[in-house]
Design a protein that fits this description.
The protein folds into two domains: 11-166, Vaccinia Virus protein VP39 (Rossmann fold, 3-Layer(aba) Sandwich), CATH 3.40.50; 189-234. The protein is built from nine helices and seven strands. It has helices at residues 11-18, 35-42, 56-66, 99-108, 110-113, 127-136, 173-179, 189-211, 215-234, and strands spanning 24-29, 46-53, 73-77, 91-95, 118-122, 139-149, 152-161. Strands 3-2-1-4-5-7-6 form a seven-stranded mixed β-sheet, sandwiched between helices. α2 (35-42) links the parallel β1 and β2 (46-53).
Length: 243
């Protein structure tokens, strides 16, 4: 039963929590079970948390979980940032959905974001689309971490208002958008595991396209393979050998 004590949280959500501003008012968008909100409050990281979820069942689940927190959390049912008024929160956290959906939520929540100091974003996929949205909308990426849980790796992005294009300099803009300007220049073991996994998949794709006579598709896959191998080799981390 929940109480004012230590709260278990998944490894990936632990990374999200660690990137929040201490003492901030936080929005947890797509809160689902409400564990992140509960953790942020009990650990003294957040002053308060507003949870939002589009669907009724997760919203009821979150309300049940955080009901004992004496008004420091609130659950509002609605789509993305729509239930939140400008000026109510300092940090927006979104995890557990695609980068494209996150970009759409952010795009529809611009009035709220205008008064937010930081966004912490942990997409399940389509990380590039999210980086592109941040860069185009004056949100400067200020940090990235790779969370790892049950053999899967998750890019976690932190951004603040500023020059969104600043992290993407030189001739490797395409690589930086794809693999992350911070993650690719300071790679961790988790980063290597993630991209070696993608290499294996892309090699299978390239071989399949070639067998099918799809030269264009094979060339696209080969280009991505070369990009990933280049980053891993540059950082002294040999790519996984071909099978």
């Amino acid at each position: 039963m929940a109480g004012e004590s230590v709260v278990a949280i998944s490894a990936r959500l632990g990374v999200v929590a660690g990137l929040c501003l201490r003492g901030a008012r936080v929005a947890d968008v797509g809160a689902d079970h409400g564990r992140l909100a509960e953790y942020l409050v009990l650990q003294g990281i957040a002053r308060s948390v507003i949870c939002t979820d589009l669907n009724d069942a997760p919203a009821r689940k979150a309300r049940a979980r955080v009901a004992y927190l004496d008004g420091r959390t609130e659950v509002r049912q609605g789509d993305g940032l729509a239930p939140i008024r400008p000026g109510e929160v300092d940090v927006v956290c979104i995890a557990g959905m695609s980068g494209r959906l996150m970009a759409d939520i952010l795009d529809r929540g611009l009035p709220v974001l205008a008064e937010v100091a930081r966004v912490v974003l942990q997409p399940l996929c389509h990380e590039r689309a999210l980086r592109e949205w941040l860069a185009a909308n004056s949100w400067r990426l200020i940090g990235e971490e790779t969370a790892e849980e049950r053999g899967r790796q998750y890019d976690t992005l932190v951004a603040a208002h500023g020059d969104g294009r600043a992290p993407y300099t030189g001739n490797d803009v395409d690589t930086l958008l794809e693999m992350g300007p911070f993650l690719s220049t300071r790679p961790t073991d988790a980063f290597q595991r993630k991209w070696n996994g993608k290499l294996r998949h892309l090699r299978e794709v390239a071989a399949g396209r070639a067998r099918a006579g799809d030269g264009v598709g094979a060339a696209v896959a080969d280009g991505r393979i070369a990009m990933i191998e280049g980053v891993l080799s540059r950082e002294g981390r040999a790519p996984a050998p071909q099978a």
